[in-house]
Structure formats: structure tokens, C-alpha cells
Design goal:
Strand order of the largest sheet: 1-9-8
CATH superfamily: Rieske [2Fe-2S] iron-sulphur domain
Helix content: under 10%
Number of strands: 9
CATH topology: Rieske Iron-sulfur Protein
Bound molecules: FE2/S2 (inorganic) cluster
Structural class: mainly beta
Oligomer: single chain
Shape: globular
């Protein structure tokens, strides 16, 4: 089972897009990053304080768009793996979400 998040062309390269998926009273926050044509997805929950990373809609990257950055205390994460690169994440990375891009360019969240 899968759920369409967006089309790959809806995201700049490099760029990011956040999602809030609601099922009943539960909400799941995710974001995707597109870089060099590849797409990566993570739960939108910083391992430092357990809150969402962005301070503005879809703003998950540092100014050079080389890393994912948490806007709260500045933790840096590797785009390709979600690994912590510096700041208060203390070696704890982001949790990846399972996605695929289908032949039509739809970004699908896999169950
Ligand atoms: S909450 Fe993300 S670095 Fe503190």
C-alpha cells in the first residue's frame, strides 16, 4: 500500500517539501529532499528535542543547500543518509521514511 505525497517536479533540485499526514487524530510529519535528481525522505522530528525541524514551510536546508538543518538549535544532517554531522544531535540521525518514485514521477510513501 502506498500514498502519493507529491510529484517529483513539485520540488526544486536542490529543495525540500514538508508533509503533514493525518489519519483520524494522529498526525505524521515527514519531509522529502530532492538533490541531484534523487529523492530522500525523513520523519520530521529532530533527534535532539523531538520536534519538527523547519521554521518556515518547506525550509529544511542550510543556505548553501548542502545539508539538512534543524532551525531550532542548528543541528546538521547529511541529505543522503540523515546522519548527524554536527550540533546538538550528538550522533543521532534522522529517521528515514520509505518512499519510491514511480515511472510517472509520483513520490509515493510506502507503508
Ligand atoms: S531541536 Fe533540533 S537541534 Fe535542537
Amino acid at each position: 500500500m502506498s500514498e502519493k505525497l507529491c510529484h517529483i517536479d513539485d520540488v526544486d533540485d536542490p529543495g525540500a517539501k514538508g508533509f503533514s499526514l493525518k489519519k483520524g487524530r494522529k498526525e505524521r510529519l515527514l519531509f522529502i529532499i530532492k538533490k541531484d535528481g534523487a529523492v530522500y525522505a525523513y520523519e520530521n522530528k529532530c533527534p535532539h528535542a523531538g520536534i519538527n525541524l523547519e521554521w518556515q514551510e518547506d525550509d529544511f536546508l542550510d543556505p548553501d543547500k548542502d545539508h539538512i538543518v534543524c532551525s531550532v538549535h542548528g543541528a546538521l544532517f547529511k541529505i543522503e543518509t540523515g546522519d548527524c554531522l554536527g550540533g546538538p544531535c550528538d550522533g543521532n540521525g534522522l529517521t528515514a521514511a520509505n518512499i519510491e518514485v514511480d515511472k510517472d514521477g509520483n513520490v509515493l510513501l510506502l507503508a
